[in-house]
Automatic annotation (TrEMBL):
Residues 426-611 form the ABC-2 type transporter transmembrane domain. Keywords: Membrane, Transmembrane, Transmembrane helix. This is YhgE/Pip domain-containing protein. It is a multi-pass membrane protein. It is found in: Membrane. It comes from Saccharothrix xinjiangensis. Pfam families: ABC2_membrane_3 (PF12698). Residues 396-415 are annotated as: Disordered. Its main location: membrane. Gene3D superfamilies: Methyl-accepting chemotaxis protein (1.10.287.950). The chain crosses the membrane at residues 21-41, 432-456, 477-502, 508-531, 538-557, 596-615. InterPro entries: ABC2_TM (IPR013525), Phage_infect_YhgE_C (IPR017501), Phage_infect_YhgE_N (IPR017500), T7SS_ABC-Transporter (IPR051328), xxxLxxG_rpt (IPR023908).
Length: 631
């Protein structure tokens, strides 16, 4: 028999019957399902990162630069992140973010601290320090999720660094521009200073030019003084003659005054005697018997008769006083004339000399005055220019930073790398292998359970034939797989931890959880094989493919296409991977407990389906008596 003949016979055998034909078609489609679904699920996971929940905490208080501009870098970064839609960013407070990363609500959290903007501006104040972006991750959520978060934060860091570097360069160039402006102002002041110096020089030159005229005037003054001295030589003699004449007048006035005073005394004596005589007459008349009226009438007649005498006496007395005053004034005039005569020679000589010399000095001084005025103006401009130069240079110096060497080096480093990332890992896988270990352990456990039923019968034929309780038959078919699966798990876990060197944070709990995973997967595959026989094996293979792409073992499960999201929530491997991550990396044990409850539900559901299959198979059918070829 030829090889082709044998091949044809085998193909005819495996396709004899409806179910075998479907099985062949199904086997033909297995590579298609694996390749197509896997590539569909992982075609572009980065395009679906906007489905990955991430917490964004903005505590930045902003800062004001030295030039008054406001910087709110934290809010700017947050706005760019949210608008960029790289992740499903949710702005929350710090406590909510930390709790969300811990319980898996958020894959990671990004925090922009309160001093973020102040740190970015610190280089301009020569107190350089980096702005810190805090990245909080939890490998128990997803190992590659943390890796992707690091890449995104690195992009944010580069973006902020470029922006801050550009602003720092702009401020540096602006500082140079300000220094240039101040230097230009100082140069303008220096130009004015030079111009003022030239004008001061010109004024000084004109002053020097006027000096000869001043000297000429001084010489003329000397000549005038000489002529004055010659022309006033006889002035002292004349003033002496005046003084002598004044003395003679004063002496004559004194004689007249004395004579007048003598006449006044005699006139006053006469008046006094007349007063006495009037009294004597009145007394005699009264003695002779005249009445008082008659006496007064006689006295009145006598008074009228002496009135001219009284008037004359008053005039004489007044004239005598005036003559005495005239005599005193004449004496003073005489004394003044004498002093004038004594001082006139020097006075006349000095007055004449000063008058003539002052005229000459005035002429020369006018020229000096013009030069001095120009010199004053030039000096004033010189002072203004010097002040402007001083202020401009001082302003320029104040604009030029002068950091010491350590500050300069630190500032240069901070400008070149203004942002740093501080990672906070709530749990850490440590290595790439440890990061993928939960996924591969869960996958290996499913494969281990799958291959068990290539050897084991899902239900005992003897038990079915004897009409045993369906639950007992189901449990009896499940327990061998559980025991062999436990052996698989123990050997696998020992090799991974002892040989490969992956150290779980909670080894005992991780092993116990992995045993539960194995028992659950055995229950599911046991139920499929018990219900569907050879088709159940195929379904188990398809479920392996579906769980491979939906469990979130590599990329976060949110990155798979939306139509596949129900698979993540509806199949058990995602819960197995999640629980193993928390127990291996040190996440919250409560999360692993929730996953364990879901797995127990799957286990009980598998036993329930296997019990239903045992119940159905208590009745024998022709297809069971003459089964079609099995896979």
């Amino acid at each position: 028999m030829s090889a082709l003949r044998m091949a044809f016979n085998e193909l005819r055998r495996v396709t004899s019957g409806r179910l075998p034909k479907l099985a062949v078609v199904a086997l033909t489609l297995v590579p298609l399902l694996y390749a197509a679904l896997y590539l569909y699920a992982n075609k572009d996971p980065y395009a679906h990162l906007d489905q990955v929940p991430a917490a964004l905490v903005v505590e930045d208080e902003g800062a004001t630069a030295g030039d008054g501009t406001r910087l709110d870098a934290g809010h700017d970064v947050a706005r760019e992140l949210v608008d960029g839609h790289r992740f499903d960013w949710r702005r929350v407070d710090a406590d909510r973010a930390e709790a969300g990363v811990r319980d898996g609500t958020f894959t990671f959290a990004l925090t922009l601290p309160a001093d973020f903007s102040r740190a970015l501006l610190s280089s301009g104040e020569f107190t350089p320090r980096q702005g810190v972006i805090v990245l909080t991750t939890n490998d128990a959520n997803n190992y590659l999720g943390s890796t992707i978060a690091n890449q995104v934060v690195a992009e944010v860091r580069r973006s902020v660094s470029a922006q801050v570097g550009a602003e720092a360069a702009d401020r540096l160039l602006l500082g140079f521009s300000t220094v240039r402006q101040r230097t230009a102002e100082a140069a303008e002041g220096a130009t004015r200073l030079a111009s003022g110096q030239q004008e001061a020089h010109d004024g000084a030159q004109r002053l020097a030019d006027g000096t000869p005229a001043l000297a000429d005037g001084a010489a003329q003054v000397a000549d005038g003084l000489t002529r004055l001295r010659d022309s006033t030589g006889d002035l002292p003699a004349r003033t002496r003659q005046l003084a002598d004449g004044a003395k003679r007048v004063a002496d004559g006035n004194e004689t007249v005054a004395e004579t007048a005073e003598d006449y006044a005394a005699k006139a006053q004596d006469l008046v006094n005697r007349l007063d006495t005589a009037g009294g004597d007459v009145a007394a005699r008349l009264r003695a002779l018997g005249f009445t008082e009226e008659q006496v007064q009438r006689v006295l009145g007649v006598l008074g009228d008769a002496r009135r001219p005498v009284d008037d004359a006496n008053a005039q004489v007395q007044g004239a005598a006083g005036q003559l005495r005053a005239l005599a005193g004034g004449a004496a003073q005039v005489s004394d003044g004339a004498a002093r004038l005569a004594a001082g006139t020679p020097a006075l006349a000589e000095a007055v004449t000399r000063l008058t003539d010399g002052a005229n000459q000095v005035s002429t020369g001084t006018a020229r000096v005055r013009d030069g001095a005025s120009a010199l004053l103006d030039g000096e004033r401009r010189l002072v203004d220019g010097a002040n402007q130069l001083r202020d401009g240079l001082n302003a320029g110096v104040s604009e030029i930073p002068a950091p010491d060497d350590p500050t300069r080096e630190s500032t240069a480093h901070t400008i070149g790398d203004p942002v740093s990332v501080r990672g906070v890992s709530q749990t850490s896988a440590g290595t790439y292998g440890a990061g993928l270990a939960p996924f591969f352990l869960g996958l290996a456990t499913w494969i281990g359970a799958y291959v068990l039923f290539l050897l084991l019968r899902p239900l005992s034929r003897r038990g079915l034939a004897a009409g045993r309780n369906p639950l007992r038959v189901a449990v009896g078919g499940w327990l061998p797989g559980v025991l062999l699966g436990a052996a698989q798990v123990v050997v696998m876990f020992a090799a991974v931890t002892l040989v490969v060197g992956i150290r779980p944070a909670h080894p005992v709990a991780a092993l116990a959880f992995l045993l539960l995973v194995s028992a659950t997967f055995v229950a599911v595959l046991h139920a499929l094989n018990a219900l569907f026989g050879a088709v159940g094996k195929f379904i188990g293979l398809v479920l392996l493919i579906l769980q491979l792409i939906s469990a979130g073992g590599t990329f976060p499960w949110q990155t798979i296409p939306a139509p596949l999201h129900p698979l993540h929530h509806g199949l058990p491997m995602g819960y197995a991977v999640d629980g193993l991550r928390h127990l291996m990396y040190g996440g919250p044990s409560g999360r692993a407990g929730q996953d364990a409850l879901v797995l127990v539900a799957y286990l009980l559901g598998g036993l329930a389906l296997a019990t239903f299959a045992a119940y159905k198979q208590r009745v024998w059918t022709p297809s069971r008596l003459e089964p079609e070829p099995a896979l």
